[in-house]
Design a protein that fits this description.
Blueprint (H helix, E strand, L loop, with lengths): L1 E6 L12 E5 L4 H9 L3 E6 L4 H6 L2 E6 L8 H11 L6 E4 L16 H8 L1 H10 L7 E2 L9 E5 L9 E3 L2 H13 L5 E5 L4 E9 L4 E11 L12 E6 L6 H15 L3 E10 L2 E8 L6 H8 L3 H9 L12 E8 L4 E2 L9 E2 L6 E3 L4 E9 L2 H19 L14 E4 L3
Parallel strand pairs: 2-3, 2-5, 3-4, 18-20
Antiparallel strand pairs: 1-4, 6-9, 7-8, 7-9, 10-11, 10-13, 11-12, 12-15, 13-14, 15-19, 16-18, 17-19
């Protein structure tokens, strides 16, 4: 891991009295920008250098590694050494670094995050507490195809595979082993609506502030894996809303979760089934704030201090969509505007099937918000992709990083 310091172009100048928030993760843009809107002095350590992240942060450091989806013990040691030189009041740990053991973390302790991130162990725990979870499937002769092959740890649907027969299962397991992914499990496949609940918790009390529709594997957003997260809509209108809230509040207190946490569900014919828990800020932050008009970083820190914010009402629908690259290219043009997020810098190299840019839309209905977000994505496709090529930019215009989730 190599860290590179880059100072932001932020025009705001927090006072010396502003609390200092450090955000650490592979993707920190959504959290850093929310913290900045709340008035904090923001530093972040992130894998990639989106222009809006740099504008939000007072100081932004970048992680460089050859395999961004693989986190090693050396990564953690190097990052802890880096953090020792940073002065901050609250640390917020985002995707990939939820278990980093550093001082003054606002959120779940590393041991709890590590347990929750182990999907197999979490399933056993939830089952013992009588929560409805997908059934575990053992390798044997009478497998109830289709079934899901999943890594024990992971996020964003990465590496999840629908297995339809024994031959497919054998090939999928062989591919796992070839890639060094030895920790996996099988579970029943549940048809239904992908949903998530965003829960604020003090460890003893909990409040579900939003129920979201998860956008998974939408092909009009570019090539991606079947279960890849590609956006969200807030709120999700469902007759099971009250039940999801009650389950989510109960889980948060039963596990002693602190701060903002996400609980993923599949809403099947018989109701919601718990899929996994994200013991950290979720990728739905933008649509939650857009639909409720709250600041989630501020609410998170308050809940870590034992205070739950008042329940907010939805004022509109918000939809965020993520566009995935249709081929390898270097960014020669980019988009600006309040409806664009995760904006790649000129010269960034983006691989096929990796995220390029996000767009957010609002409306009085789910469809209005969704169509608005897609409109901005279509504009981004034409603009960002208008002069895309596989050739590098001349001179030092090239940004030598890959954009990844």
């Amino acid at each position: 891991m190599l860290s590179v310091l880059s100072r932001s172009n932020s025009t705001s100048s927090p006072s010396d009295e502003s609390l200092r928030v450090l955000v650490v993760g592979y993707n920190t843009r959504h959290i850093a920008c929310s913290a900045k809107r709340a008035g904090f002095n923001v530093e972040s350590v992130s894998h990639y250098e989106d222009s809006d992240l740099i504008k939000c942060g007072d100081v932004t450091r970048f992680i460089r590694d050859e395999f961004p989806e693989v986190i090693t013990d050396a990564d953690y040691r190097n990052l802890k050494a880096l953090v020792r030189g940073i002065s901050y009041d609250h640390a917020i740990l985002a995707t990939g670094f939820e278990t980093l053991d550093i001082p003054r973390v606002a959120g779940n302790p590393p041991s709890l995050s590590s347990f929750v991130n182990d999907k197999d162990c979490l399933r056993d725990k939830l089952e013992s507490l009588d929560y409805l979870v997908p059934q575990h499937v053992d390798l044997g002769d009478n497998l109830p195809f289709p079934i899901i092959l999943k890594p024990k740890r992971g996020a964003g649907g990465f590496r999840n595979v629908i297995v339809r027969d024994k031959q497919h299962l054998q090939r999928s397991i062989e591919q796992y082993h070839e890639n060094g992914w030895d920790n996996f499990f099988l579970q029943e496949f549940i048809h239904g609506i992908d949903a998530s609940a965003s829960v604020l918790s003090t460890g003893k009390q909990a409040l579900t502030i939003a129920i979201n529709e998860q956008l998974i594997g939408l092909k009009n957003l570019g090539p991606m894996q079947r279960f890849s997260f590609c956006g969200s809509v807030t709120p999700l209108r469902t007759s099971f809303a009250r039940e999801i809230e009650e389950i989510s509040n109960s889980i948060a207190t039963d596990l002693g979760l602190v701060g903002t946490n996400g609980i993923d569900f599949i809403i099947g014919a018989d109701g919601p089934v718990i899929i996994e828990i994200n013991p950290r800020f979720q990728a739905t932050l933008d649509t939650i704030e857009g639909a409720l008009g709250i600041n989630l970083v501020e609410a998170h820190i308050k809940s870590c201090q034992g205070e739950l914010v008042p329940r907010a009402r939805y004022s509109r629908f918000a939809c965020r969509t993520v566009y995935f690259a249709e081929h390898d290219f270097y960014v020669k043009k980019t988009c600006e505007g309040q409806n664009y997020m995760d904006i790649p810098r000129k010269g960034t190299f983006i691989e096929r099937a990796k995220p390029v840019i996000s767009a957010i839309g609002y409306g009085k209905s789910r469809d209005c918000a969704f169509n608005s977000a897609l409109h901005y994505i279509e504009t981004a496709k034409r603009y960002v992709g208008a002069e895309c090529s596989n050739s590098a930019l001349p001179g030092d215009e090239r940004v030598s990083s890959f954009k990844t989730l």
